[in-house]
UniProtKB/TrEMBL annotation:
The gene is Cfap46. This is CFA46 protein. It comes from Ptilorrhoa leucosticta. It comes from the Eukaryota. One of its GO terms (biological process) is axoneme assembly. InterPro entries: CFAP46 (IPR039586).
């Protein structure tokens, strides 16, 4: 919320979505958010793909979404318990498709132009720092996604 307030005047007038613990989005809400946006930000616990149905995502066509930013792969004891309970019902192949590289490929196949994603487990603080760098460079300085990713890598 703090970052959204900080960057409110820079391209955020049309932002919509779910913030904090307001509610857990339904699959229909995920679909509406992804299909009606030019950029999508997921900042949450565990794998992004653990929140959406794989069969639903691969059937989507979302070419209007030019950028997906996935700041996920954060683990708490509570999130680990939730994901463990969910994962026991999934095949090995299904779980493999939820990994970061495979998720980026799936999003690309649905029409997303660019995907910025974490590749390994991290902390909320590290993702908050990444989000600050992303917002500052993309929104304040007007840098391209490529330039911004390069900054994140260094």
């Amino acid at each position: 919320k703090e970052m959204l307030e900080k960057y409110h005047d820079l391209f955020t007038l049309q932002w919509e979505g779910v913030i904090g613990d307001m509610c857990v989005p339904s699959q229909v809400e995920w679909e509406q958010l992804l299909t009606n946006c030019s950029a999508f930000l997921f900042y949450g616990m565990e794998r992004f793909m653990s929140h959406v149905l794989l069969n639903w995502l691969v059937a989507m066509n979302i070419p209007k979404c030019r950028l997906v930013i996935l700041l996920d792969l954060v683990r708490s004891q509570q999130s680990y318990q939730r994901i463990t309970n969910s994962d026991i019902h999934k095949s090995c192949l299904h779980l493999a498709l939820e990994r970061p590289t495979e998720t980026a490929m799936l999003l690309s196949l649905t029409g997303v132009g660019s995907v910025i994603a974490t590749q390994w487990y991290t902390t909320l603080q590290e993702n908050a720092e990444r989000l600050e760098v992303l917002f500052e460079n993309l929104l304040s300085f007007g840098k391209t996604t490529g330039q911004t990713v390069h900054i994140l890598q260094s």
